[in-house]
Structures are given as C-alpha cells and as structure tokens.
Automatic annotation (TrEMBL):
Keywords: Cell outer membrane, Ion transport, Iron, Iron transport, Membrane, Receptor, TonB box, Transmembrane, Transmembrane beta strand, Transport. Residues 45-159 form the TonB-dependent receptor plug domain. Its main location: membrane. PROSITE patterns: TONB_DEPENDENT_REC_3 (PS52016). Residues 305-766 form the TonB-dependent receptor-like beta-barrel domain. Pfam families: Plug, TonB_dep_Rec_b-barrel. This is TonB-dependent receptor. It comes from the Bacteria. Gene3D superfamilies: TonB-dependent receptor, beta-barrel domain. It is found in: Cell outer membrane. The keyword Transcription does not apply.
Amino acid sequence: MFEKSKLHSAILAAGAAVLGSQPVLAEPRQIEEVTVTATKRAASAQDIPVTVQALGEESLENLNVSNFDDYIRHMPNVTSGGRGPGQSSIYIRGMATETIATQLSQANGTAPNVALYLDEAPVSIGGRNLDVYVTDIERVEVLKGPQGTLFGASSQAGTVRLITNKPQLDEFQLGIEAGVATTKGGELSDTLESVINLPLIEGRLAARVAAYQSNEGGYIDNVAGTYTPDADVNLAWAGLPVQSASNEDLVEEDFNDASYRGARVGLKYAINDDWEALLQHTHQDLDADGVFDHDPENVGDLEVRRYFEDSLEDSFDLTSWTLEGRLAALDIVYTGAYLDREVEQSMDYTGYNDVGGYVAYYTCDYVDSCYDPTKGYVGLVENTRTSHELRLSTPEEYALRLTAGAFYEDVEILDRGNFVYGSIVDLGFPQNYPRGWSPDSSDPNRATAIDPGARPAGVAFFNDITRTEEQLAFFGELSYDVTEKLTATVGLRHYDIDVKLLGSANSSFGNAGGIDTDQYGDNLDSKWAGAGIDVPLNESDVITKFTLSYTPGDDTLLYATYSEGFRPPAYNRGGGNGNDTTTVPYTVTTDTVDNYEAGWKTTLLDHSLQFNGSVYLVQWSDIQTAVFDPSVYFLFYLDNALDAEIRGIEADVTWLPTDNLQMIGALSYNDTEITRVPGSAVNVAPEGSELALSPPLQFNLRARYDWTLAGYDAFWQAGLQYSDEAWSSIVVQPNDRFEQDAYTTVDASFGLREMHWGAELYAENLTDERAELFINTLDNTKRITTNRPRTFGVKVTYDF
C-alpha cells in the first residue's frame, strides 16, 4: 500500500487537460501487470481464460479505497444492497433479487450467491458482508460468472477476493499514512495506518505487521419528532386511544459515525528451498452508530427520525495458515482458516406499528389504555467458520495440466434476536423462554437452545436459532493444449453439504411465557420431526465447467466458457404455516445457474493499450428469494420463487496515449428478465419484469497524469462513475419495489512525492450527488441508502 512505483493505474476522465510543465520521465511507462490466482495458480490476469477484474495495490492507493463501499463502486457489474457498514450483500452480473431484513438474515435468509474471500479463507454469510478495512492489501480480485468448481458454495454469480501483502523474507519496509477529511454538513474523518516488514532470520523468517484506525464522521441527522400509530395506515389501531412516542433523548446531528480499528500479523518461514509456511492473524473492530439510509420524502435530506437506539459492534478474528511446496513434479498447497465473528446490533423497529396485523395487541389493553408504541430490535449473531483445503498442481509447462484437491468447511451461526416492545411490561405479559422446554423439565430439546433462560422483560418476540453448514467437496480442473494455440479445460466439483436449522422462534402471544407450547411459536426441533423433514438437510451434486481458449497471437486471448454454480439449500423458520392460498414450504433447494460466455483479452499498440471484454447469457432457475405474505402471520419466508435470464456485455480498456497520461474505462450492460413465476409464488414481480439491484448500464472513467514539478513527482487524476436506474426488490407487496434513480459521481485528486514522502489532496463526490444505492422498507419505513456527501481530504505518506 505504501510502496510507490512509477506505474499508476488510472481511468479516463472526459475532457481532461494537461497541466503543469513538460514531463520528464526516466523510462517509458507500461500498463501495470496484475498477477491473480483466479485459477488457483498465480498468473497474469491477461493470460487466463477467466473474466476477472483486479484492482492492484497501486490502483487501490490511487482510488483512495479504504472499505467495502469504496472498492465496490469502482467495479462495474458489481453492486450491493444494504444499510451500512457490515450490513450488505454483493451481486454480480445482475444476479440479484432482494435483501432480507438484517434482523432475519441469519434466522431466515438465503446464503449469498457471491462468495467473499480474505486470502484463501471464505468469510461470507447472508446479509452481513465482512467489511475488511483495506490496508496493506495487494489486490482485490473480482471473478465474474459462476466459480463453483474451484471456489465452491456461494460462488454462484462470482467471487470477490481480498489478497493481503505477505511478509518478505529479505526486505525491510516501513510505511505510515495519515489523513484527515471533511464532509459537507458532516463531521471530520481521520485515518492512521502503518505497516512494517521485518526480516528476522536471513533468507528464512520474516514478520509483517499492519495496523490501522479510521474514524469516519457522520453526515445523517436524527431530528426531533413524534410518532403516533395511524389507523388509516394500519387498521389494527382503529378505535384505540393511541399514544405517541418521542425521540427527544436520541436527537443528534451527524449520528452515523463509524470506526475501523484493527491489525494483521503475518509470519513466513522458508523451511527449505522447496517448502515454506505462512501464518497470519487478523483482528478488526467495526463500530457504527445511527443509520446510513435517510428519509428525504418524509423528513428531509440526510435526515431521519429514529425512536430506538441504532448501534452496531462487529468484531472478527481470522487465523489462517498455509503450507506450500514442491513434491517431485507437483506443487502442493494446504491452507486452513478459522474465523470467529461476533455482531451486536440494536435498531429501531417502531415502523412495525404500520404493518403488524396484531401489533395493537402488544401495545393496548383494548379497554382504556395504549402504551408507548416504541419498538426495537436487539440482536447478537456469532459466526464461526473452519475451512481446510488441500490441492496439487502439475507443472504449468506440461501440455496436460491438472489442479485438483479436497475442501472441507464447518460453519456455525448462532442468532439471538430480541424484538423489544416495552409496552408488554405495562400489559403484564410474562417473560419468554425458548420453545420446547420449561425450567422444571428435562426436555432434550433444551439442548438446542443457545440461551435457555428467560429473555429480559419487554421482549415480545425472539429467535434463538442455530444454523450450521458442513461441506465436503472434491474438485479438479484439467487443461489440455490441443495445439499450440488451442486449449481445452474441464472443471468438476462434487460437493456434499449438510444444513441444519435448530432452536426456536418465539412470541409472548398470551401463553404462559412461551413455555412448553408451540401454539404461537415454533420449536424447530419438533417441527421438523412432526413434518417428516430430515435434519440435517442434505444436498449432494456435481457441477461442471468447460472452457475453450484460443491464442491467435502472443497478445490476444479468446475464450468460451460454460459454467455452473450452487449455494446451500435452506429451511424456513415458519415452514408449514399458511392459509387457503399460501403454504410456507419447509425447505428450499439450491437454485441452478447455467452460464454461457465468450470473452477476449487483447494487448495492442506496442503494449500501450489493453482491451478486454465478454458477452454472456445466464439462465437462472428456481431462484432462492425471500417473499412476504401479510396473510400468513406477516411472515417473510424463502421460496424457489421464479426463473430469470440475464443477457449482458462487459468491457474494460486501459490506454497509455503518452508516457505520462494513462486512461482506463470499464462498462457493463445487463438485460435482466423474470421469465417464469410459478403459481405458488406470492407477491413477486410478474414475468417480464427486471431483477432487483441490476442497473442496465454502469461505467466508470478515469485519467491520471504524472509529471515533474519543481523536482517532485507530481500527478493529477479525475474520474467519474455512472449507474443506471434499478429496481430495489422483486417483492411487490407491501409496496417494496421502487425504482432507484440513476446517478453519477465525480472524484479528483492532486499529489506530490519525493523519495520517501508524499502528500495528496483529494475530493470525492464533487457534485454532491445523492446516489440511491438501495431503497428499503426493511423496518417498514421507506429509506434510501446513499453515498457520502461531498468530501475533501488530505493524506500524507512516509515510506522507508
């Protein structure tokens, strides 16, 4: 991150003019070559028949990328839906449907269809992206299209990989970066990052430590107001003496601040000339207050009214280890990882008063009193993940090449989510216990409760759910050079995956504290047994990939690929509930993806121009999605609800018109269409509709110019990003599908550098655009996740 080279990745900005004195550069520049491991082998991104977009270390630095939102917005054909740091889902090539409420994402959400990796460790769970701060990162790789044969479950639409810098055995490095920024109408932000690489035993042992702290100032205000349930909005309140709620204790300007604090420590040991070992540990604390979506229609620009505390504490520890070497002619790699992540979150849920069919029952005595209508959610999600992979590769120079291996992982998600209605204390509701046991019994189902004790007073509903996935897979990719120019590749993965959902979903609906009854809640253990549903839910299959690649010359690669992807099946927490028209399915199967694509990679004009791209057709069947039916206990539930097709094209270009000016552009176009909606599907968009969060056109453009100014290396750069309008959801009831406006953002920067020191001035969102990144009604109030307002900053770096 801190090591500057004379190569600067950049993207064309239309109409950019040359500034300053005549350039003086020591040697002609070339396009930065980025090495990726998209095929489980290290290779130049230009040399592999895989559609991969990579931001190298130099590009990440030039783009001021610091977190998830930053790198996503610089990659066309990659979008996200979410409500703030660590609360998003990633989508690639328009393969998106919806984003389920964060409060339910672990208890009753789909698995992601884009896998997120930190180095070799899979780290994704539904609805809660691991928002790793981008410091001392070698590159970010985005592999587009199904990558399931090599990267497994959830690589159904693609894979995003963050690759860290590793210890260097014989090189001392020291880097420090500090910065401060001011946001229009918001608080100051500041960052401090450092990295040190220490050779400990010459040629044998080295350590690398990266540490960071970033405080991102808020820019959304929680403004004063009152909330009164309205019978015109929800008939449940008709004829009742309603009471208002006030948020005066929570009023605060710029209340959505966030901080990232963490460190990564790595040790590399060269065992001998053929073998080396790597051990790394990363710890990060992400703290965020407030919300990152605003309510411009009902409250005001960058304003909301919240009646219950909104806060997030998201901490993780990731330990990974790798042993690699050579055995005869084979390259052997064993890698493993253990992730321990804990998320504590509190959020306002008062908007549920506007849709809950029985909500007045929990607030009023139906005689003469209604109590405080404030409602909130307080949750704790714990995620542990252990993974192991052993693979071997034959030499690259062989005409017949094989990469093969075995993969095992064990994932556990513990979800304790409490829905707090203070009014139930006034109404005399008893405290609630997990379903299926009582304090005076030895019911064996008690063993599946995470917390078997009574919930705090005021908890009207809660989930106490354990969700697990265990997977064993064997994979292989075989390539054969049919001729010197034509290569055929076959990839296979056999997977066997077990999924469990245990515990209970509970309510205080008039029974004795939820004890020993399933009348108003579900003890999932007994539910599955009573319905004849197997626990665990098992799915086993083989997915395939076929590629033909052709190199008519040294600087041109053409390829065609057919590939498949998968993600785990799932249970429905409310399976079996229903009415005359709807029955919630107990389980949903994996959705199937057939991806057909043809791509090209070219290097032209004496290596001063690269032009890459691909066209594709995606047939997506039995799509797993969350739907809503207010007639079934107001439940969100999962269904294999529809089929869709996506036709698209994506391209990127890098051009060096002179030794000093570099231009890069990238675009994507997607035509998404829902092709089938079965009669059992409820409240989803009709056939012919577009998928959600799938803008037809996206592009970014940037230019960077380097020259010498008064003895310093100087640069300026400017760029823009554009995204078309998109639909927010495929769910149409109740009023969940909104068209998000198109938007354009503009950034610029200027900097100076000498041998060890550098300084940069930058501006982000120069036009102060309010991008509609995601419109949601996830807590029954329409709000818009938007980007940070106009921000100016300065950063200073020192490298030794």
